[in-house]
Design goal:
Layout: H1 3-14, H2 17-29, E1 32-33, H3 34-41, H4 45-57, E2 61-62, H5 65-68, E3 79-82, E4 88-94, E5 98-104, E6 110-117, H6 123-140, E7 148-155, E8 158-160, E9 165-169, E10 174-177, H7 179-187, E11 191-196, H8 197-208, E12 217-222, E13 226-232, E14 235-236, H9 268-271, H10 273-284, H11 290-298, H12 302-326, E15 330-334, H13 345-355, E16 364-367, H14 372-388
Parallel strand pairs: 4-7, 7-11, 12-15, 15-16
Antiparallel strand pairs: 1-3, 2-3, 4-5, 5-6, 8-9, 9-10, 12-13, 13-14
Helix pairs in contact: 2-3, 2-4, 3-4, 6-7, 8-14, 10-12, 11-12, 12-13
């Protein structure tokens, strides 16, 4: 990171609470007038001006839109906008078989993306692969690589973001892996953030997606696992111990079902992709892929339709439990398995309506497809967030 980028990152980290609120508002809503910044943050216009001045001087905020007009209709009321390429962040999604990485500007617009197969889940080998992937992405950024300020890495499981320790990840086979510290030794001076993958995706939706301007929503992901992230009262819920919203491990199914985490009766034990495939493969006495299982279900195969019905019912019941407890306005269902959501949909909504209490049934359930690059983009959003929150 060059001196100018270092100074910008240092300014963000040292900003007052008011300045942080101002910058975050401009970042997520550019271009925006100072009047609207004041309204959203609850600060006076004088306080907004005081916060904006050093950000402009550092090259993080552009306050010349009013003079240049930039095609804005009418008479702009002193609009300001983030200088999106003032700093760069990299996000990496860790899967058991591959890494997916993206390099983003401050608005998480993707400038470059890369994938790297993983031949081993041994932590040291994964660290080597992440370092190699970051190097590839930096090379593709040309001169902007010198503005790399933060790297976000997202992993499935119980992640302590404060310490960077992956306490438990069944899919990676990890326990108490100090991933953040191991990466920091190799990737200095960029800030390193290790985050739960679903929570990172929720941060991305909170700042730049469906959740922008929403007081409360929940992100539920279906695919290799069943995860959930919570955004309540304008903030992403971290959990006192780094765990919050883990609906995939609610014991809502038969104890005959063993989850990948080693516990019995978890929602994931019947609703994760591997569980659905295993159930149908056992019934047919042969190995199957999820694509084959989906085709069987659409053709009316009893074992396949039962597997998706059981999975959808478990997911819908878990969502109802979440909504009853937290009361979000909206539940966003995402993840790689939403490509087959037509096979879950009826059962998810029926179980949700059966178990949602009172007015909680009014919570909207919307489906939003996510590719693994979107998960990596969420990790980049978590990295950017670490610079300013």
């Amino acid at each position: 990171m060059d001196d100018e980028a270092s100074a910008r990152a240092a300014l963000l980290r040292s900003s007052s609470d008011a300045a942080t609120r101002v910058f975050t508002t401009i970042l997520t809503r550019s271009p925006i007038s100072r009047i609207d910044v004041a309204r959203i943050t609850g600060l006076s216009q004088a306080a907004v001006t005081k916060a904006v001045t050093p950000l402009v001087a550092a090259g993080l905020i552009d306050d010349t839109l009013g003079s240049r007009r930039d095609g804005l209709p009418g008479r702009p009321a002193n609009p300001v906008a983030v200088v999106s390429d003032a700093l760069v962040a990299i996000g990496v999604k860790v899967n058991p078989d591959e890494l997916v990485g993206v390099a983003c500007d401050l608005t998480t617009r993707v400038a470059a993306s890369e994938r790297l197969p993983l031949t081993s889940t041994v932590p040291a080998r994964v660290v080597d692969a992440i370092v190699a992937l970051v190097g590839r992405l930096v090379d593709r950024l040309d001169g902007l690589g010198s503005r790399l300020a933060a790297i976000g890495v997202s992993v499935s499981g119980d992640v302590d973001t404060e310490t960077g320790v992956v306490r438990e990840s069944a899919y990676m086979g990890w326990t108490d892996v100090p991933l953040g510290a191991d990466l920091a030794r190799r990737l200095t001076p960029a800030a390193i953030v290790v985050e739960n993958d679903v929570r990172a995706l929720t941060i991305g939706e909170h700042w730049f997606g469906v959740g922008l301007g929403t007081e409360s929503f929940a992100m539920v992901t279906i695919g290799r696992g069943i995860g959930s992230g919570l955004h309540v009262n304008g903030e992403v819920v971290e959990g006192a111990y780094g765990v919050a919203g883990e609906i995939g491990h609610l014991p809502l199914t038969s104890p005959d079902h063993v989850c990948a985490c080693g516990r019995r009766g978890c929602v994931e034990a019947v609703a994760a992709t591997a569980a659905i495939v295993a159930s149908v493969a056992e019934a047919h006495g042969r190995a199957l892929t999820i694509e084959e299982v989906a085709d069987l279900a659409r053709a009316g195969d009893p074992a396949a339709t039962h597997a998706f019905r059981e999975a959808g019912t478990a997911i819908g019941t878990a969502i109802a439990s979440l909504v009853n407890l937290v009361g979000p306005e909206t539940v966003i269902i995402g993840g790689e398995a939403v490509s087959n959501f037509d096979l879950f949909d009826e059962h998810v909504r029926a179980a949700f309506h059966e178990h949602a209490f009172g007015a909680a049934v009014r919570c909207r359930i919307v489906v939003r497809p996510h590719a693994f690059e979107d998960w990596a983009r969420g990790a980049a959003a978590a990295a950017i967030r670490s610079l300013v929150v």
